[in-house]
Write a structure and sequence with these properties.
The structure holds two protein chains of two kinds.
Chain A (H helix, E strand, L loop, with lengths): L1 H29 L2 H4 L2 H24 L6 H6 L6 H6 L5 H21 L6 H25 L23 H30 L4 H32 L10 H26 L3 H23 L8 H4 L1 H25 L14 H31 L5 E3 L1 H21 L10 H25 L5 H26 L9 H26 L1 E7 L4 E4 L2 E12 L3 E12 L2 E6 L2 E5 L5 E4 L1 E3 L4 E10 L7 E9 L1 H19 L2 H19 L1
Antiparallel strand pairs in A: 2-11, 3-4, 4-5, 5-6, 5-7, 7-8, 9-10, 10-11
Helix pairs in contact in A: 1-3, 1-7, 3-6, 6-7, 6-8, 7-8, 7-13, 8-9, 8-11, 9-10, 9-19, 10-11, 10-14, 11-13, 14-15, 15-17, 16-17, 17-18, 18-19
Chain B lengths: L2 H30 E5 L1 H5 L9 E7 L5 E2 L5 E7 L4 E7 L11 E8 L5 E7 L9 H18 L1
Classes of the chains: A alpha+beta, B alpha+beta.
Chain lengths: ~650, ~150
């Protein structure tokens, strides 16, 4: 009964989405206020019904209703309750449902926080978001119904993929989707602006906080994903340049370019066409990411052939959205007048330079991700593009990006003076170069990339500090600095922290695979690891060999680590569960390989010393907080108050 | 320098920067592409001898042997038509098993052994790495045409 209710709620949501898409768009075109007024209630109603559908699915998972196919394939009666709940979005169908719920959430948020916007703008934005929702709901209902029944119902489920049974995976997908789908708001604003032909600084000010919040969520989602990979995959890596990772990274790069370009459009009225194009790009890449991860095309392009309906639907939708928006762009963009001239050396020019570098990096990632798929689809053989390619391209491209990141915020709008900048920054530059050269000397071995990384991290740190000092010298107090300034500074500082972390861990981590018998010990980075054997361990839905590894330093015992080798009951799948002792300056990471003798006394053990790895996620956290701070800046709220009477008057008219 | 000239200079600088970026990307792309060959193709001498590539297929039953150091593993990858001996030092992925699909990346050594630097077995109990499936498919096709 409950699954049918969920199915029914989805159908109602689709009807509401259709209403929300069609009527307000017609109303906005004709200036009909009654039709435009449909947008808000339809959007909010759609949200209610998608949430009902979601609750119904979650309920089916929680009560182990294995007559629902989705539950039977992705859950298991012995699965702990919290994972039964998160299994709701662990499958293809469930995660698309989550996508739709989050889209409806964003739409509702826009409908609530848009009272200061002109009615036709709201109608168009909500209408466009309704169209997107129609696409996804139709996809869910026609090809991926999460409520399909399985008759006769099996006795038990096939269990959730063990890798997903981790709390990083509980929050990673919702955060990632908040980011992905959040770019739909920026996209809808851009389309609305193109439709109405009203593309001005006010438009940029409206869409800016939404975009920044979406970007912050995406940053958080990616960071959580990387943290999960580090802890769960047992390889100790934090980024693999895997297509699924690239799928989320590409919209992030485009989004980063977008929030910077929006700043110029808001402050100076320049780059309008460019900003709109970036908004379209960011969301198109979000859709592409969803498509890559959800269509099964990554595991094999031929997955398409086994389930052509799904693949063809998403591909068609992708072509429609990207193609349609680009046609609209080509038609409307030339009519937009770009205001605010600037010279070749100004904050605008520097931000533009940074945008170009970011897009070059984006192009490189896109090429490396799609080319193997293309070659395979054309039947021209199988190739893979691995981390060496991405590292060889991405790291050098980051050099100009990080360098410009230091200068940009300190340069004046419109026209900056080169000699002035040189005199303000010469010390920072000298100290950064010196740090880059000297710091690696104190560490284990001189690595050229470490020189580069340390210099860049120091450069960003110093320019952030200079930014504060100059403001304070000009009479500002710390308390009088705007939140958007704090946000920017914090996000940039986060970049410095992250770059420092990546530099250290990529250049100075050490790992060792050793064969260990009970009582054997090995040394790594000054720590001594002693293997104390394994014991049988019974988990809620798995059995495990649980190892004990004693870690000591200078003869003093520090702590014990307990890496596990698990076998999951339902699937029979083996899994390595690493044991990690985290700290601000270094992580100790131990994983069990496989038993090397019959009695399982000797094991292959992998030990890692990971210095500064947590700085990576710390840096990402700074960026996230910075994003939220900037989006909560007073001027966006002042705009609400100042414009409220005008909006009310327009409504009354 | 007039501002018009300055503008031109900046545009030229920008374009050359972009050119360098593109050159960098394409060069890295060229030198880091990893091609895939099935054991049959390797046996036919199609695989390169100087650069790394991937092979895939099934881990032959009974072929997994460990050296006394416990960490060096030898096994044979087969596409059921031809097979290829592989040597790898390190910890194998969780789903590495005899009779199951596997993909290995590495180079052919002077001794004819495939020196693997990375062994991949995807994380799903009935999941076959796509490349391994491809190799088996091709071998099956080749055998069918032979039978006819």
């Amino acid at each position: 009964m409950i699954p049918e209710l969920g199915h029914f709620a989805l159908i109602v949501a689709l009807l509401l989405a259709l209403t929300q898409a069609i009527l307000p768009l017609i109303g906005a075109q004709r200036g009909n206020l009654t039709l435009m007024a449909v947008a808000r209630p339809a959007a909010q109603g759609q949200f209610v019904f998608t949430v009902i559908a979601f609750i119904c699915l979650a309920y089916s998972f929680l009560v182990n209703d294995f007559s629902v196919e989705n539950v039977a394939s992705n859950s298991f009666s012995q699965l702990p309750e919290v994972y039964r709940f998160t299994a709701t979005w662990g499958s293809h169908e469930g995660s698309l449902l989550l996508w739709v719920v989050i889209l409806a959430f964003w739409t509702t948020a826009v409908s609530v926080f848009s009272r200061h916007l002109p009615e036709d703008m709201v109608a168009r934005v909500l209408g466009v978001m309704g169209l997107i929702s129609v696409g996804f709901l139709a996809f869910l209902l026609t090809t991926s119904n999460p409520f399909d029944r399985l008759l006769p119902a099996p006795m038990d489920g096939r269990d959730m993929n063990p890798l997903l049974q981790d709390w990083g995976m509980i929050i990673h997908p919702p955060m990632l989707y908040m980011g992905y789908v959040g770019f739909a708001v920026a996209f809808a604003f851009a389309i609305a602006a193109l439709l109405s032909g009203r593309l001005d600084a006010a438009w940029a000010r409206w869409s800016r906080p939404w975009t920044t919040v979406a970007w912050a969520f995406l940053t958080l989602g990616i960071a959580l994903g990387s943290w999960w990979a580090y802890r769960e995959l047992g390889w100790g890596g934090w980024w693999f340049w895997d297509p699924t990772e690239n799928a989320s990274f590409m919209p992030w790069i485009a989004g980063t370019a977008l929030i910077h370009s929006l700043a110029v459009t808001e402050k100076r009225g320049a780059f309008k066409a460019w900003t709109v194009l970036l908004a379209l790009t960011a969301f198109s890449l979000s859709l592409l990411g969803t498509f890559l991860v959800r269509s099964g095309v990554l595991s094999s392009v031929h997955a398409f052939a086994t389930d052509p309906a799904r693949g063809a639907f998403i591909l068609g939708f992708l072509v429609l959205v990207i193609g349609g928006s680009l046609v609209l762009y080509a038609w409307r963009a030339p009519k937009m007048l770009s205001g605010g001239g600037f010279t070749w050396f100004s904050r605008e020019a520097l931000l533009l330079g940074n945008n170009v570098v970011l897009l070059a990096a984006l192009g490189a990632v896109l090429l490396g991700t799609l080319y193997p798929l293309l070659i395979d689809a054309l039947g021209m053989g199988k190739i893979s593009v691995g981390p060496p390619y991405f590292n060889a391209v991405f790291v050098p491209l980051m050099a100009p990006a990080l360098f410009l990141m230091g200068i940009g915020p300190l340069a004046r709008w419109k026209e900056a003076s080169l000699p002035d900048m040189v005199s303000r920054l010469k010390w920072a530059l000298a100290i950064s170069v010196a740090t880059g050269i000297l710091l690696p000397l104190t560490l284990d071995g001189f690595k050229p990339w470490a020189v580069f990384g340390f210099a860049m991290a120091m450069w960003i740190l110093l320019t952030v500090l200079i930014g504060f000092r100059e403001r304070l010298k000009n009479g500002a107090r710390l308390s009088s600095l705007t939140r958007s300034f704090w946000g920017m500074q914090l996000a940039h500082l986060g970049m410095a922290v992250g770059v420092a972390g990546i530099t250290v861990v990529a250049n100075y981590q050490v790992e060792r695979d050793v064969r260990m018998n009970i009582g054997d010990h090995t040394e790594l980075a000054g720590y001594t690891f002693t293997f104390r054997g394994t014991t049988e361990h019974q988990g809620p839905n798995y059995r495990a060999a649980r190892g004990t590894v004693e870690v000591s330093k200078n003869g003093k015992k520090l702590y014990e680590l307990h890496p596990e080798k698990r076998i999951y009951n339902a699937s029979g799948m083996p899994m390595t569960e690493a044991s990690i002792q985290p700290a601000l300056f270094d992580d100790i990471y131990v994983a069990l390989g496989e038993p090397l003798d019959e009695e399982a006394k000797t094991w292959a053990v992998r030990v890692f010393h990971k210095p500064f790895i947590n700085w990576l996620w710390l840096g990402a956290l700074f960026m996230v907080i910075g994003g939220f701070l900037a989006a909560s800046d007073r001027r966006y709220r002042i705009a609400v108050k100042a414009a409220a009477p005008a909006g009310a008057a327009a409504q009354g008219a | 320098m007039k501002s018009r000239h300055k503008k031109l200079l900046v545009i030229l600088l920008g374009l050359s920067g972009l050119g360098i970026a593109v050159a960098l990307i394409l060069n890295a792309f060229q030198s880091n592409l990893v091609f895939f060959y099935s054991p049959t193709e390797v046996a036919a001498g199609k695989a390169p001898s100087d650069r790394a590539f991937r092979i895939g297929g099934l881990v032959e039953d009974g072929s997994v042997k460990r050296d006394p150091d416990g960490l060096t593993v030898r096994f044979v990858v087969t596409d059921t038509a031809k097979s290829m001996p592989v040597v790898y030092k390190g910890i194998l992925p969780d789903l590495f098993k005899e009779g199951k699909g596997v993909v290995a990346e590495g180079k052919i050594g002077a001794d004819g052994l495939f020196n693997s630097t990375q062994v991949l077995a995807k994380h799903d109990e009935n999941y076959m790495p796509p490349e391994a499936a491809h190799a088996l498919e091709q071998a099956a096709k080749a055998q069918q045409t032979l039978a006819q």
